[in-house]
Request: fold
Amino acid sequence: MRYWLLTGLVVLLGCGPLLADGLAYSLPPDGTWVKYKVTVEKYEAWKTRPDEKKGWILEKEKDPSAKELAEGDTVVVRSVGKLEVNRVTCRWIEMVLNASEEGKKKPEGRVVVLKILVPEKAFAQGSDPFEHVRKMYLSDTHDTGDHFLNEIKEKDHQKYELERFRGYFPIAPKGAHRGKELERKTPAGLFKGHELAFEYSFVGKLRQGQSGWNWEKGPYVVAISDRAPFGIAAVRARDVLSIEEYGNGHGARLKQSWTMEVVEIGKNAKSAMPDKE
Reply:
């Protein structure tokens, strides 16, 4: 399974949160963290390749078992510091994929931590904070125990790493209609709010943003609540289609349905890269 996560965020002011076109709908006090559980209900994958006799071939891969689907994934988002840059107040945000394995020398599956510095004023209506990243660090731990820690400076590479997360927290388009009011019961408590339903898509490149092509599109329903630290209590995606083209006729197709919801909330978040600022 390919994993993605969080896009837009908003500053929480004394009068209450501003609404943004980006994906999180409020920015909580520094030190706040939230854990989400992703439950996959449908996962269908295909590989593409050229064949001398048959031409372009699309081969379906074996479907995952019910047990494999039930394992899902965990995603963590945390605010881990503030920094003044040229008199502009910025916030450090970390996003973690396969968070249940974070900190292990040999995790069961790859663990990716992305640390980004974004001006707080970029968290506003009509703004995508991911377009205003001042700094980015990437911590990448593989199941072999290999670990890589780098500052990502190239804009194309930054975009590629951010797209790793976008599918979990899609950006609502301008004019997206506020849906019905809701009460969602989660392991972290009851969240009251409303739904926001829309179709989301994005296009990018592979290989650290240098070559290839990837595309994703599908319908999403986001449960928005003021009680959720980053404004999002749950996300539901149905039959989201992803396409990747590596070049020379090779590629992949993926169609999946999943639900993500808050399972734990806490304070005093610690950075996985405390010396990287």
